Structure formats: C-alpha cells, structure tokens
Amino acid sequence: GGFKNGELNSSKYKLRDNSLAEKTFTFKADFMESSGSHNIGLARLAQDSLNQLGYLVPPQLVDPNVRTTMDGFPMLIFHRATPDSERIFLGKYNFNNDKSNEATTGFTGGQECWEFLNNTSDNTLFIATDFHSVDGSGKKLWKNDFEGRYPEDNEDTTNLEALHTWIVSCKNDPAKFKAEAKDHFNIQFLLFYYVFTEFFAMVDQRAKNQMFAMYPDAEGNNRWYLIFYDNDTVLGLNNEGHNVYDYWVEAHDQVGSGFVWNGALSELWKLVEVAFDTEITALYQQMRTSGILT
Asked: Is the pLDDT at 29 greater than 70, yes or no?
C-alpha cells in the first residue's frame, strides 16, 4: 500500500506543497452538485477568508499549514483489475483530505470535535439538553444527534454537554448570551460562520453538518470553534440538488410551510443574530470592503 510518485513510494501524501502529509484521503463523488466547486471550492474559500482576516485556531499559530476546512482537487478515476486489463472509467471525483486527518486539522491531543447529524432534534437545535435518554434497546439517543470526530468515536460528552446546557440556558436572553459567549466560543469564528453561511446561502449547515471543535489555547483555556464541512447545499441549491433559491434568500425565509434554512429554529443562531447584530454587520462590511467577499 501507500502512494507512488514516479519512482518514489511513501506511506503518506501531500495534496499541495504547503499541505501536511496524510495517509488517508477520500474519493468523494458529489451527487448533490457535480461541478466540484461547491464542497471543496467553498471549503478553500472559507479557509482563505479566515486566513486573510487573521482568524486562526491555536494550532495554526504553531504551524500555518494546519487547516480547519478540507482541501482537495477534482480528478477522474479509472480502474483495471490487472496491469493488462482494459482500463475502465469509474467517474469524476474529488480527491480530498479525509475528515479524520488529524495532522491537517491540528487535532494532535487535547482537542475535541463533534459533528451534528440531523436538522430536527431538540438537541441539534439547542431547544433542550438531553444526553441521558435511551431508546428501547438501551442506545443513548444523543448518538442520533452527534458523532465524535476527534477523538474518533469519542463518547465522552462532558464538554459538549456543558456547552449545550449553557446555550439552552440563554434561550430568550440574548444579553446573557452576549455577556458570556466569550467564555465558551471563539467569537471571531462564531460570527464568521454566521456571515459565511448567510452570504453563500449554505442552507444545510446550521444544524446538521455543523462541526464544533474545541481547542485549548496557550493559557489552557478551552474555546469552541465552528468549522465548515459538507458544503454541497449552497448557492441556491436545496437538499434535493435543485437550483431553486435566488441570491437574496434570507435565513428565515419560507417556501410553503417549510423554512429555506435547515436549522432556522436553532436557538443558537437566534441568539447570535440578536446578540451580535452590530458585530455581524461590521464583519460583513469588513469582508466586502477588504475584497474578501466581492
């Protein structure tokens, strides 16, 4: 196994000259949007924008090649069973970092990362906190809502539950949320996530597909950073892959009886948009006037 480049063989591979070498990659077929420009294209744009703003997670202060978003490039895949077999075209894919790439994301010890798995539960919408209920077979129901990305298959929800409980305690109290948010979140990443998902109509990333990553800083303080993953349903697409929304679509717009944005009822994002309205406006203006968003 491994990677072969000319005459060289290696157990790891670098996507680019400034990438960190990894041994696991994903051949991702974008069934939702096949141009390859949405998922990895927006991931790269998000990372470039964060870098231009100087918004960095603690490991990036040590190694600037650490990323919080996936990287990759489009490719065509052919296969032959033996060296003499006919070459068969399998399809157009993206050759991407795998979300388990710990070196690339700076997950080297002491961090946590949780992926949100659905759009509708009280847990993922921060309506109520429940990490203890079980189903008829004894399975903890929170496992339908969250999955540990780092450490892989982590089931210690102590830190996530503490954050969750605090957010729920702020419902209908944006003043409390604003006063205390800096003790829980990196505010720069929180507001950037709000602005970026709004600007690009990322309608499936305010509940399911959210990634909450906790990084300790140099002083040992733990803060949560929102990072981007699975950026397919964006720029006018709905979850069926149809291009149905115009560029002016807003987070609380409805089509029929349903919201355009999954997660429109999230108590977290309700609190963010009320508590940090002035700061959101200022960040958007900064990103426009500086040319980050044009």
From this structure: yes
Helix (H) or strand (E) holding 89: strand 88-97
What is the spatial distance between Cα 150 and Cα 258, in angstroms, rounded to a whole number?
A: 33
Burial class of 260 by CB neighbour count within 10 A (0 to 12, 13 to 18, 19+): middle
Is residue 93 within 8 Å of residue 116, measured between CB atoms?
Answer: no
Residue the block writes with tokens 């065509």? 76
Rounded distance, CA 261 to CA 207, Å? 9
The amino acid at residue 153 is D
Question: E strand or H helix at 150, and its extent?
Answer: strand 146-150
Query: What are the Cα distances from residue 96, in Å, to 30, 124, 127, 187?
Result: 12, 27, 34, 28
Distance CA 184, CA 171 (A): 16
Q: What is the pTM of this model?
A: 0.91
Distance from C-alpha of 275 to C-alpha of 283, rounded to nearest angstrom? 14
Q: Are 70 and 97 in contact (CB under 8 A)?
A: yes
pLDDT digits (tens, 9 = 90+) for 94-139: 888 888 888 888 898 889 999 999 999 999 999 999 999 999 899 9
Using DSSP, state whether 161 is helix, strand or coil: helix
**For 220-248, what is each residue's pLDDT tens digit?**
889 999 999 877 778 877 777 778 888 88
A 10 A CB-CB count for 212 gives 20
DSSP symbol at 65? T
Report pLDDT digits (tens) over 184-217.
Answer: 999 999 999 999 999 999 988 899 999 999 999 8
Q: Which residues pair with 146 in a beta bridge?
A: 116
Give phi and psi for 194, each to the nearest 5.
Answer: -60, -50
Q: Which two tokens stand for residue 85?
A: 């077999």
Go through the chain and tell me how many residues it has.
Answer: 294
